[in-house]
Design a protein that fits this description.
Blueprint: H1 5-17, E1 19-21, H2 22-29, H3 33-45, E2 50-52, E3 55-57, H4 68-73, H5 76-89, E4 95-98, H6 102-110, E5 117-121, H7 124-130, E6 136-140, E7 144-146, E8 151-153, H8 155-161, E9 166-171, E10 175-176, E11 181-184, H9 187-198, E12 200-206, E13 218-222, E14 228-231, H10 239-245, E15 249-252
Parallel strand pairs: 4-5, 4-9, 5-6, 9-12, 12-14, 14-15
Antiparallel strand pairs: 1-3, 2-3, 7-8, 10-11, 11-13
């Protein structure tokens, strides 16, 4: 499914609060209980929310991400806005690393008209997209291909990336917790992401609003290791203060 704007707002409310009653959602969204229940049912069927008696919460798993196809449809408009904002800030004739994720895939599509880019990626989807740009050189990381999302992970990928030092790392993430840690689910993917961060002169994080207060098992980095954050809506509390303390530049790609 492609969530509509009301359903995306509902998801954002639940992400920010962790769990919410149906009555609270109806009041916040200004709609009927019946409408909320219908939206909740559809989102729960897609695995984007978990229901309990009288309310709804974020899915409880901290060990496994939702499917790639579901992530592609979740807040696709917000990811597209983020991608355009990132692409507008990326200069021609620079070197980049893009990692695994549907947001970085959206960024790849937004970079199709750039020239002189040299892009390293451990995401075969990113490589496929950018290889159609004749003015862009794509270098694919070696390693184990993860079939569910075409990501390349493992020690071989880590060793490959260690050869390079790029101008920009453009990374996605599964969750940003309220203590300022960036988290993901697969420790093999995390090892690659950590290597990407340490082999870039600047690190830009692209994360839509659903990633804030989303738990995951493995720590990738902290906000203090990020130079710039691109998102699609003002982050909830306490992230404004965290970003200021970490000296991270915030770019909000509003509609």
């Amino acid at each position: 499914m492609q969530p509509n704007p009301r359903q995306l707002t509902l998801l954002s409310v639940v992400q920010a609060q962790g769990s919410v009653t149906v009555e609270q959602l109806a009041e916040t969204l200004g709609v009927t209980l019946q409408t909320v229940r219908r939206d909740v049912q559809r989102l729960a069927d897609e695995g984007l929310l978990a229901r309990f008696h009288g309310g709804v919460r974020v899915p409880s798993s901290t060990t496994e991400n939702i499917a790639h196809q579901q992530r592609e449809s979740l807040n696709a408009d917000g990811k597209s806005r983020i991608a355009r904002a990132v692409a507008a800030a990326v200069p021609n004739d620079c070197s980049l690393i893009l990692n695994i994720g549907t947001t970085t895939e959206a960024i790849a599509r937004a970079l199709l008209h750039h020239s002189g880019l040299r892009v390293i990626t451990n995401n075969l989807n990113v490589a496929s997209i950018l290889s159609t740009n004749p003015k862009c050189e794509v270098i694919v990381v070696g390693g184990v291909v993860r079939g569910r999302d075409q990501g390349i992970v493992g020690e071989a990928a880590v060793d490959f990336i260690r050869q390079f030092k790029v101008d920009l790392a453009l990374i996605g993430i599964s969750g940003i917790e309220a203590d300022g840690t960036l988290r993901d689910y697969d420790y093999r993917e995390v090892k690659v992401a950590q290597t990407i961060i340490s082999h870039a002169r600047e690190v830009w994080l692209a994360a839509d609003i659903s990633k804030f207060n989303r738990p995951a098992m493995v720590e990738v980095a902290t906000l203090s290791q990020i130079d710039r954050l691109f998102t699609d809506a003002p982050p909830p509390e306490p992230f404004a203060a965290l970003l200021t303390d970490a000296q991270v530049r915030l770019d909000v790609a509003l509609p």
